[in-house]
Specification:
Elements lengths: L9 E5 L5 E9 L3 E6 L8 E4 L3 H4 E2 L3 H8 L30 H4 L22 H6 L14 H15 L2 E3 L7 H10 L5 H6 L14 H18 L9 H14 L26 H16 L5 H25 L6 E3 L2 H13 L9 E3 L2 E2 L2
Antiparallel strand pairs: 1-2, 1-5, 2-3, 3-4, 6-7, 8-9
């Protein structure tokens, strides 16, 4: 075993393209260090084997590495536009170095918080001009089928009766998305390289890779939005969310209040929550997108993929939704905590998610 590192320690790690990036230790496993590249999506977390430490892991900062090895660590400016969201109420973050997936225009979020694309500010590029050309707009509407609408209505009724969904869900959002991607006819090579390509399509041509990127973008967006002003949680579910975060954060250097950085620190809400909360987001997605800084063309692209995903959800809802078996009644002590939290909370605007015109989280 080479140099010893501690959990939480930041260092320089050599990525697969022989590029140095800032990383930190998430944990120590039997065969190596579990690491996270700072500013990257948690999807890129990996385990560096003990035998590879000397070749890939270096103590110090990027500046130290550059001085020692005489290499340029200046982040490469993105030449192509990425599809990134701007989460309402969450500031964007500038991360150095740039995630190579973002350099290539993949759908990724920095520090777990989607930030605005170049279209929201800065100089206009040639690509921006191309995006301004006429195209057939896709309506910002998610058409849910009657079975899916009924699930949301029943969900509202059960919550009003004091029932909340079981956590972790029997079928998590991560599992549902994985199952969906398996139905898309793409090769293994395409899936492995999907983060390294720019997917171009319009309303007349929805490529299979675009559907994959849309699905992954929805997961990333869910992981941020669920903890941002509790857009997808009923009031009686918020204490449960806090409990889950506290449980997962034991031994880590972050708290419940830093929900925007949860994905970067190893906590993925999509690995805990399931079909119900995913469906709530789909029903509310048009309103959420209106609060982002995406331009009309980017929203057009994401909505095309969303429609295909809704078809999948409708076709398979019986598999992922267990009706009342997915819910549980909480204890008197739990509801007392809910009441205490409500009493201590400052009066403000109603931030509860509406699942339909007549269905609103309370």
């Amino acid at each position: 075993m080479g140099t010893v590192y501690e959990v939480g320690e930041e260092f320089v790690c050599i990525w697969r393209e022989k590029k140095p990036f800032t990383a930190k230790i998430l944990g120590i496993e039997a065969d190596g260090y579990r690491i996270h590249y700072k500013g990257w999506n948690a999807r890129y977390d990996e385990t560096v084997k003990f035998e590879d430490i000397d070749a890939r892991m270096h103590k110090g900062t990027l500046e130290d590495y550059a001085a020692k090895y005489g290499v340029d660590v200046t982040p490469t400016k993105s030449k192509k536009k990425s599809m990134k969201a701007a989460t309402p109420g969450a500031p964007g973050s500038s991360v150095e170095p740039v995630d190579p997936a973002v350099e290539r225009g993949a759908y990724e979020s920095h520090e777990g918080t989607p930030t605005s694309s170049r279209a929201s500010g800065g100089r206009s590029s040639k690509k921006d001009k191309e995006d301004s050309t006429p195209y057939t707009a896709v309506p910002m509407v998610v058409h849910l089928t009657s079975p899916l609408k009924k699930i949301l209505i029943d969900d509202n009724v059960l919550n009003n009766k004091g029932y909340i969904t079981k956590i972790p869900a029997k079928f998590t959002i991560d599992q549902i998305i994985t199952d969906y991607i398996k139905t898309i006819p793409v090769t293994k090579d395409q899936l492995q390289n999907v983060d390294d390509v720019v997917v171009e399509y319009d309303s007349r041509d929805v490529s299979n890779l675009a559907l994959v990127c849309t699905a992954r973008a929805l997961v990333d967006y869910f992981n941020v939005i669920i903890g941002s002003s509790y857009h997808l949680l009923y009031k009686i579910e918020r204490e449960q969310f806090h409990d889950v975060v506290k449980q997962k954060s034991k031994g880590r250097n972050y708290s419940v209040g830093t929900v925007a950085t949860m994905p970067d620190n190893g906590f993925r809400a999509s690995s805990e929550y399931g079909f119900i909360h995913l469906l709530r987001m789909m029903a509310k997605l048009p309103d959420l997108l209106k609060l982002t800084q995406w331009n009309a063309h980017l929203c057009n692209r994401i909505m095309i993929g969303v429609h295909d995903f809704v078809v999948f959800l409708n076709k398979n809802h019986a598999q992922y939704y267990g009706d009342r078996d997915d819910y549980e009644a909480k204890t008197v002590e739990y509801f007392q905590r809910v009441l205490d939290s409500e009493q201590s909370a400052a009066e403000g605007a109603d931030d509860q998610p509406s699942t339909s015109a007549s269905t609103k989280c309370k």
